[in-house]
Amino acid sequence: MGSLSLVRKPNSAFTKEQLMAKFPEKKGTITDELVEKLNIANNDPSFNADEFISTMVDYKHIMLENRGSLEDYMNAVKFCAYLESEKSATEAYRRARANDEFIYSKVGVSTDSDEYRSIAYVASRYRNNNKMVRAILTQTDMPLYLVFQKARYQAVQTLATEMVDAKFSKDRISAASKLLEHVKAPENSTVELNIGPSADAKSMQDNLMEQLLITASNQKKLLDAGVNIRDVQRLNIKTEVDSEEILDGEINNV
Questions:
Q1: Regarding predicted confidence, which is higher, 173 or 186?
Q2: For residue 134, which of 85, 66, 88, 82 has the smallest C-alpha distance?
């Protein structure tokens, strides 16, 4: 992947055909004027000239995903490269867009002037709101553990080899210990939280309610038939789950 670093080193010019080959998706928009702008940027003594076009190729999926023009994409790459060097969005924007009328007309303005503040405002918006700039900065700021993921695997393999082939037992034991640390299974555990009654509890509740309704109905029939209320209240309630007696008590005033 291309570097965004800046060093002084000249580079040869690219032709229109070469750029079309590198950016076939945008070949219909590659004009002589655009080729000239790209070569001016590519030969800027501040840039790592060997890497500028290479970097554009490496990150061109950002241009395609955001449907940007090749010129806008070039400006975004330039801005990000200068930002890495300048650490100031305003100065990076001034250098990346030096030939734009907006910037060219303000060359030499004082940093406490309204003109400079207007550049700072535009640069800040460009840094924070331009989709291609944000995508490039996000990708180039990829965590090192991802950048060196292949090396991590190689390091683990080295430990595995050392664990077996090391001359001294203490070195083999040390390698084995470190290897176990790096390849141990994740310690994350899954906690399931069930809100409300479980299926079994709900089934038992439904059965109980059914038995209560049946009991109430039977009690009413017995009372209507003239049975003594004390005898009626001795009716038992059973569930269908385990046929155990759930309730053997009094049901008052059904």
A1: 173
A2: 66
Taking alpha carbons only, the member of 75, 21, 69 closest to residue 52 is 75
Which of 154-163, 183-192, 239-248 holds the top average pLDDT?
A: 154-163
What is the pLDDT, as a whole number, of residue 235? 52
SS in 3 state form for the chain?
CCCCCCCCECCCCCCHHHHHHHCHHHHHHCCHHHHHHHHHHHCCCCCEHHHHHHHHHHCHHHHHHCCCCHHHHHHHHHHHHHHHHHCCHHHHHHHHCCCCHHHHCCCCCCCCCHHHHHHHHHHHHHHHHCHHHHHHHHHHCCCHHHHCHHHHHHHHHHHHHHHHHCCCHHHHHHHHHHHHHHHCCCCCCCCCCCCCCCHHHHHHHHHHHHHHHHHHHHHHHHHHCCCCHHHHCCCCEECCCCCCEEECCCCCCC
Q: What are the structure tokens assigned to 84, written together?
A: 């890495």
Using one digit for the tens of pLDDT, what is the confidence trace for 30-85? 999 989 888 887 777 766 555 778 888 888 999 999 988 999 999 998 898 888 87
pTM: 0.51
The angle that helices 49-58 and 32-42 make with each other, rounded to 10 degrees, is: 120
